[in-house]
């Protein structure tokens, strides 16, 4: 058994590495059946000083949509610049999502040592994966499609961001969408015929059935959290096509890969945006492809879609940022703006495992690596289609939810995984979390292997955090990773709210539904927390500070705010204040993180941004 697993691991790693070098190699690793819409996006290398109407930086969740929508205007010549290469067979497999963060498809950022989070992870540092591949983080992500509560967007509008209230942005969620879930096809909240397929995993986990029953026992409805009510229990909706990942590059780029006015340059890392210091106009972009540095020029605009980390960093290395900080690192300021502040994220507590007396309920390494699962996957189903391994989502309110908010607005989310850290034979989850082998064996080593395989997880996610972090740059060189201070649990209420999440999970597993299988929390205390009585609030606070990790929802470093608001980097029309011909359209513009997984909100922002740009240039919107 073990040598088979090792062999699979080696093959995967080789394939992922090689895929960076050869398109044909990833083509071999991409299985049939393929829809005619899909196929490799040709790589184009621009000539030095070549001109484009629009240059989009970053082919991530937002960038692929922007490139598609802007090139709908046939007289606009559009260039899309991406630092990574192609996705491949393995990145398509939904349950392998956690694994992708350990490959070169991840930029590999990490935080500064944290005070109250990632305490027992390597060096108190939290890993912050970001996609470096065509499709960006939509290739690394866990596929979950979740939009948030209407008030999240109404709050943006109340801050003065005209045009961003829920009723104004709902059409943009629907515009992208091709809902494949039959029960929801007639819902007024969902779209049909868009580029992006939204579906349930074809595999029904036995745990999903228990989760639904447990929710009902506790008085929660089973429902569509992207519909009228968010609070409740549900099966995760996913960016998925026939059981495979539907990234934004697959959805929005591949079907239009031969559009003549759109060019895509891959493996091209932007070093700097060229800004004329006198006219304060963005005139071009400098990037490295292989060893060669090139410049491309714009006739109209540059659209920055390099993500919360990349966009903030690129602005600053190009002279747009807090003046005193830029001077500190030796950059000549062009425009003084609060870039890098307002860094917000969602953390989840992920060290727990629940044990059941029937391993067929769970999907751990043994099931995931079995040839049967592989065969089922090739036929379009089976446990490998679970999005990032998730089999259930729930939204609820803790006693820390703001009283000023509507009672329909959640502040805690539960994500049920069909497997757990205890079942991590191959060490993939350990690597992702950053927990050391020593920690793992101390907590889970006492369990026999077959017991570890019969385990699953329910993790609480802090979806309305109060703590805010900050991104700074180290130098003017884009290759130097920025300084990321996340400040998780800086506001102690965040920690208390997450403990409430643990308590809610305990209620879920104590229902009749879960007790049918003798479900119990593995109760070996975490090293370093043994000083607190097991299961006390203090114990959980300690455990949370040890192994809470990000669910990779960083947003906010190029905050959208109305003119006159000193915290704003971009206007509600996404123009960088004080610079002509430069917009930002990605996760970084969010003024406040929505109580949702951020992929759907980012895609909405990109759809709306494309319409704003068309309007501003006098074109009709579609
Ligand atoms: C591991 C992981 C799991 C996640 N799980 C979920 C989930 O289940 N559900 C959900 O809703 N959200 C999830 N998210 C979050 C979600 O995927 C992101 O919020 C979203 O993809 C961000 O989109 P973006 O366009 O802002 O940035 P990205 O998608 O990261 O795109 C930025 C792009 O710019 C490129 N780039 C950056 N700098 C440069 C440069 N200098 N030159 C050239 N190119 C550059 C990058 O390579 C990348 O392709 C997850 C994220 C991660 C990383
Ligand atoms: C959706 O609406 C159409 C037309 O109104 C109807 O024919 C169809 O049965 C409905 N489908 C579902 C799943 O409700
Ligand atoms: C930027 O940093 C990289 C990696 O450290 C280095 O190879 C490169 O030469 C640096 N570029 C400049 C302009 O200093
Ligand atoms: C699992 O535990 C429950 C509750 O203790 C018990 O009723 C059931 O028979 C057990 N099932 C197996 C397969 O051991």
TrEMBL record:
User: Which SUPFAM superfamilies does the annotation name?
Assistant: FAD-linked reductases, C-terminal domain, FAD/NAD(P)-binding domain
Cleavable signal peptide: 1-15
Q: Which Pfam families match?
A: GMC_oxred_C, GMC_oxred_N
KW Flavoprotein (keyword) present: yes
Domain Glucose-methanol-choline oxidoreductase N-terminal residues, every copy: 131-154
The UniProt keywords, alphabetically, are: FAD, Flavoprotein, Signal
User: What PROSITE patterns does the record tag this protein with?
Assistant: GMC_OXRED_1
- Family listed: Belongs to the GMC oxidoreductase family.
Tell me which PANTHER family the record gives. Answer: GLUCOSE-METHANOL-CHOLINE GMC OXIDOREDUCTASE, GLUCOSE-METHANOL-CHOLINE OXIDOREDUCTASE N-TERMINAL DOMAIN-CONTAINING PROTEIN
State the name under which the record lists this protein. Answer: Glucose-methanol-choline oxidoreductase N-terminal domain-containing protein
């Amino acid at each position: 058994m073990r040598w088979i697993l090792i062999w699979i691991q080696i093959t995967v790693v080789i394939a992922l590495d090689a895929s960076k070098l050869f398109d044909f190699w990833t083509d071999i690793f991409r299985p049939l059946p393929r829809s005619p819409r899909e196929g490799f996006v040709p790589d184009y290398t621009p000539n030095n000083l070549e001109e484009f109407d629009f240059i989009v930086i970053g082919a991530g969740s937002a960038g692929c949509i922007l490139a598609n929508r802007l090139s709908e205007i046939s007289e606009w010549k559009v260039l899309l610049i991406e630092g990574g290469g192609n996705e491949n067979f393995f990145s398509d497999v939904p349950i392998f999502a956690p694994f992708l963060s350990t490959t070169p498809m991840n930029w590999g950022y990490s935080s500064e040592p944290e005070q109250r989070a990632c305490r027992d992870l390597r060096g108190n540092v939290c890993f912050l994966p970001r996609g470096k591949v065509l499709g960006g983080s939509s290739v690394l992500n866990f596929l979950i499609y979740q939009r948030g509560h209407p008030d999240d967007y109404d709050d943006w509008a109340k801050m003065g961001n005209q045009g961003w209230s829920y009723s104004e942005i709902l059409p943009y969620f629907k515009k992208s969408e091709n809902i494949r879930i039959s029960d929801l096809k007639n819902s007024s909240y969902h779209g049909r015929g868009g580029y992006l397929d939204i579906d349930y995993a074809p595999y029904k986990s036995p745990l999903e059935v228990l989760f639904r029953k447990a929710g009902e026992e506790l008085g929660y409805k089973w429902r569509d959290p992207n519909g009228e009510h968010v609070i409740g229990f549900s099966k995760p909706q996913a960016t998925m096509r026939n059981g495979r990942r539907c990234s934004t590059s697959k959805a929005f780029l591949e079907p239009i890969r031969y559009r003549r006015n759109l060019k895509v340059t891959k493996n091209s890392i932007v070093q700097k945006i060229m800004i004329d210091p006198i006219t304060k106009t963005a005139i071009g972009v400098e990037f490295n492809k292989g060893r060669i540095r090139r410049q491309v020029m714009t006739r109209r605009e540059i659209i920055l879609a390099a993500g919360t980390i990349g966009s903030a960093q690129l602005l600053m290395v190009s002279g747009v940022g807090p003046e005193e900080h830029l001077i500190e690192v030796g950059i000549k300021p062009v425009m003084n703006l609060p870039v890098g502040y307002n860094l917000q994220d969602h953390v989840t507590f992920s060290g727990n495992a629940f044990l059941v007396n029937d391993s067929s309920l769970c999907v751990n390494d043994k099931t995931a690596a079995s040839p049967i699962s592989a065969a089922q996957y090739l036929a379009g189903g089976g446990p490998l289609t679970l999005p990032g391994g998730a089999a259930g989502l729930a939204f609820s309110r803790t006693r820390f939810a703001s009283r000023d908010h509507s009672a329909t607005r959640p502040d805690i989310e539960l994500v049920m995984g069909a497997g757990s850290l205890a079942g991590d034979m191959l060490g993939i989850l350990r690597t992702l979390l950053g927990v050391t082998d020593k920690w793992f064996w101390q907590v889970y080593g006492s369990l026999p292997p077959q017991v570890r395989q019969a385990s699953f997880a329910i993790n609480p996610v802090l979806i309305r955090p109060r703590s805010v972090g900050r991104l700074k740059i180290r130098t003017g060189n884009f290759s130097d990773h920025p300084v990321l201070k996340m400040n998780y649990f800086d506001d102690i209420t965040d920690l208390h709210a997450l403990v409430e999440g643990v308590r809610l999970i305990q209620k879920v597993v104590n229902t009749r539904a879960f007790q049918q299988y003798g479900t119990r929390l593995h109760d070996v205390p975490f090293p370093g927390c043994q000083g607190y009585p097991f299961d006390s609030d203090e114990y959980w606070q300690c455990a949370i500070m040890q192994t809470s990790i990000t669910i990779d929802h960083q947003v906010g470093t190029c905050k959208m705010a109305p003119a006159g608001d000193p915290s704003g980097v971009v206007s509600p029309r996404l123009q960088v204040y004080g610079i002509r011909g430069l917009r930002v359209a990605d996760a970084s513009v969010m003024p406040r993180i929505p109580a949702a997984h951020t992929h759907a909100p980012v895609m909405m922002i990109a759809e709306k941004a494309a319409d704003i740009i068309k309007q501003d240039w006098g074109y009709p919107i579609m």
